[in-house]
Write a structure and sequence with these properties.
By secondary structure, the protein is of the alpha/beta class. The chain has 14 helices and 25 strands. It has helices at 6-9, 29-45, 91-96, 109-115, 145-151, 197-209, 222-229, 248-254, 278-284, 295-298, 301-305, 341-350, 405-414, 418-430; strands spanning 18-20, 57-60, 79-83, 100-101, 122-127, 135-137, 154-159, 167-168, 171-173, 179-182, 215-217, 238-240, 243-244, 269-271, 273-274, 290-292, 310-314, 318-320, 325-326, 329-330, 333-334, 355-359, 371-372, 390-393, 396-399.
């Protein structure tokens, strides 16, 4: 391994290239900053050492946080973001039209790369130090990187001693990497937010639906944390999820989560990325009970369904009275993305004893009902009403499976916020 500077490494990027990098704490910010700095230099301070200034570079990734200057207006024509999931750091750029969004279930992203529907010329990575066999680890974020690495012309890796060494699809041999940059910096952390009464109520209702021996999928946010906090008396739970956070650690330490009932990867905690604190990164480091897998595996509905009693807990922006779930947009404005919601709803639906759950507060922070007569005009349906079963708010839990439209509407109204129920009832009468 021969190290070069980040400034030298990003000179390998050419105009017209399509670049991919991992999500959340796995995003190699040192390389990203160097790429943006190169554009700054070419625009004002000096020209590129490898010819013409950069133009028309497309960037793609999942959910990221923090540094995203490549979406600033001054880089129009240089960088363009086509993300698979819209985080808060790129939301304004996406909604204003400077960036764009590729609608998809995340399980499809490796296939998009493999078939060429989405190009991949360059991959930026942040990896651990190599082991004695010459493998580095992607640590906290595997995403669709294994397929991207196979397709890319050039793979640039930031080697960071703070990246935990994880197993599964996260191990990459150094022979797959074109250039190495050394830059050590602690990973970005995400401390759990305090739970409010609504979170706790939703967590308790969801926990009551979870049987012993279940395999869990939970996402980002307070509701998954609240659910896990209520599971201390459960037995023999497993994890097969898009991600997990610090909240699983106490349950593993108590033996509540042991994966003993899983048919696929028994005894293992399976995820595609991690989001949490240094405690989580220390927990997964060289932990053979944790498998970090490619999203084409973690989010494959058939793989998910192969485990019994899969409980998938996902959230929503709105649900209409027929059960249609919008979770990626506010009207026509993209707010986040489809993510893995449909992947895991399908997986739980076809799991033996599986329970798909949509869990959300009944109203927004502004007091607007999230259960509505019809979705806001322009909203996207992420989970169709044909697949929605359990819906949970702090007001209660209802199962829509097998109900007709009138029954569904009445069930959903029963768990709507009391301030919205009269208006929702009147919409049925008018209908």
């Amino acid at each position: 391994m021969k190290y070069i500077s980040a400034e030298e490494a990003v000179l390998l990027v050419k105009s017209g290239d399509h670049i991919h990098w991992p999500c959340v704490s796995g995003a190699p910010e040192h390389l990203i900053e160097a790429l943006v700095h190169r554009a700054n230099c070419e625009n004002g301070e000096r020209r590129a050492e490898n010819g013409e200034p950069l133009r028309d570079v497309t960037i793609s990734h999942f959910y990221t946080e923090g540094y995203a200057d490549y979406t600033l207006p001054k880089y129009n024509g240089i960088f363009h973001l086509d993300s698979f999931f819209v985080g808060g750091n790129v939301r304004e750029a996406t909604q204003s039209g400077r960036a764009d969004y590729i609608p998809c279930s995340l399980s499809e992203t490796p296939r998009m790369i493999k078939c060429g529907a989405v190009r991949c010329d360059v991959v930026f990575l942040m990896v651990s130090e190599p082991d004695e066999e010459g493998y580095v680890s992607l640590g906290t974020s595997v995403d669709y990187m294994p397929e991207a690495i196979e397709r890319a012309r050039c793979v640039i890796a930031q080697v960071n001693k703070y990246v935990p060494y994880t197993y599964g699809d996260s191990r990459i041999h150094i022979s797959k990497i074109t250039a190495f940059v050394r830059y050590d910096k602690p990973l970005n952390e995400a401390a759990p937010l305090p739970l409010n009464e609504t979170d706790i109520a939703i967590g308790r209702l969801c926990a009551e639906l979870i049987p012993d021996g279940a395999t869990l999928q939970t996402g980002i946010g307070n509701i998954p944390t609240a659910v896990l906090s209520q599971l201390g008396k459960h037995r023999n739970l497993g994890i097969h999820s898009e991600m997990f956070s610090d909240s699983v650690i106490p349950l593993v330490e108590k033996g509540v989560i042991n994966g003993s009932c899983k048919r696929t990867d028994p005894g293992k905690l399976v995820a595609m990325f991690l989001k949490g604190s240094q405690k989580l990164y220390d927990f997964v480091d060289h932990n053979t009970d944790v498998l970090m897998k490619d999203v084409g595996y973690t989010n494959n509905p058939a793989v998910i369904a192969s485990n019994p009693k899969v409980v998938a807990i996902n959230s929503a922006i709105q649900i209409d009275l027929t059960g249609q779930v919008c979770s990626d947009s506010i009207g026509p404005r993209i707010f986040s993305g489809s993510g893995g919601q449909l992947d895991f709803i399908l997986g739980a639906t076809y799991s033996d004893g599986g329970i798909p759950i949509i869990a959300m507060p009944s109203i927004t922070a502004k007091g607007i009902s999230k259960i509505v007569p019809t979705l806001t005009l322009g909203s996207g349906v992420v989970t169709p009403r044909t697949l929605v079963q359990w819906v949970v708010t702090e007001q209660g839990a209802v199962n829509l499976y097998g109900l007709n439209l009138q029954q569904r509407a009445k069930a959903l109204i029963s768990i709507a916020h009391p301030s919205a129920r009269d208006q929702l009832l009147s919409s049925i009468v008018k209908g």
